[in-house]
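User: Sequence recovery, please. Input:
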């Protein structure tokens, strides 16, 4: 059953879809656009690189859409085909509704449908933000060559009181450029300055989209399927949303590699894109 939407009002999705199209004008490399029809509705997909190159699937996590992940995509060379996917039900270019119940099970099946639509037997996968829990919920773990969970939300409890809380409320209440910049800087590590496309995108998200804080955590039994498999968790040292201590305990319990990026916050795709690209190819510790 598809009932929940990330948008405040009917028609707001068209504003966000237009914003995604505008962000593509900043890409230097040629970008192919696809629409996959899935059980969760139309799924918007971007890809760069040759079809025969090694596939890297990136699940956009709500902070930035697929069209806003240019810096991360550019860190991969021509030996990789980078495929960027907007989740249905999150701000981006895909369908506006998300599952009303059994949300991770539904997204886990959806992810396999996306791989099927792309004709990929398997791929390395980066899940960003809340999409990290979606990647971890993949219905068939054998379809994932390596899993990188970046700034993951939905694995452990979120931090309740943090430095981005008040700026986030101000951004939601009055989403102008000044409040948006203040919020992004609170999410990120020290010294981060958002570029103009990121700033304007986030301003629109504040104006037209609802909060994702109510999305559920993934079940521990679903995570246990990854024990012994090539999985990396990457988190910023200064991430205000993630309880790094809880994430470290989870990693230890499951024998998963945890990498902490010094000086970085929650926006790893724009703060440390080279580090994320490196983790895809890094051998297991």
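Assistant: Recovered sequence (285 residues):
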């Amino acid at each position: 059953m598809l009932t929940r939407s990330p948008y405040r009002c009917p028609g707001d999705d068209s504003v966000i879809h237009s914003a995604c199209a505008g962000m593509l004008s900043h890409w230097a490399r040629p970008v192919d656009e696809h629409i996959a029809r899935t059980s969760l509705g139309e799924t918007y997909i971007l890809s760069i690189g040759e079809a025969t190159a090694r596939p890297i699937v990136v699940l956009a996590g709500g902070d930035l859409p697929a069209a806003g992940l240019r810096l991360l995509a550019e860190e991969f060379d021509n030996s990789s085909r980078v495929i960027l996917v907007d989740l249905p039900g999150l701000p981006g270019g895909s369908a506006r509704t998300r599952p009303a119940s059994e949300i991770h099970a539904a997204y886990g099946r959806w992810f396999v449908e996306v791989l099927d639509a792309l004709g990929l037997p398997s791929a390395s996968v980066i899940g960003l933000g809340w999409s990290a829990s979606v990647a971890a919920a993949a219905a068939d773990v054998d379809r994932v060559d390596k899993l990188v969970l970046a700034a993951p939300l939905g694995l452990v409890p979120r931090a309740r009181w943090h430095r981005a809380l008040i700026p986030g409320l101000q951004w939601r209440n009055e989403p102008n450029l000044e409040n948006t910049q203040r919020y992004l800087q609170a999410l990120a590590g020290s010294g981060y300055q958002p570029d103009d496309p990121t700033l304007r995108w986030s301003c629109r998200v504040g104006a037209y989209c609802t909060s994702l804080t109510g999305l559920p955590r993934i079940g521990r039994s679903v995570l246990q399927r990854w024990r012994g498999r090539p999985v990396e968790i990457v988190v910023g040292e200064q991430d205000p949303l993630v309880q790094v201590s809880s994430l470290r305990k989870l990693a230890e319990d499951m024998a998963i590699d945890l990498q902490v990026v010094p000086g970085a916050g929650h926006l790893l795709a724009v703060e440390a894109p080279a580090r994320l690209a490196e983790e895809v190819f890094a051998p297991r510790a």
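The mean pLDDT is 92.
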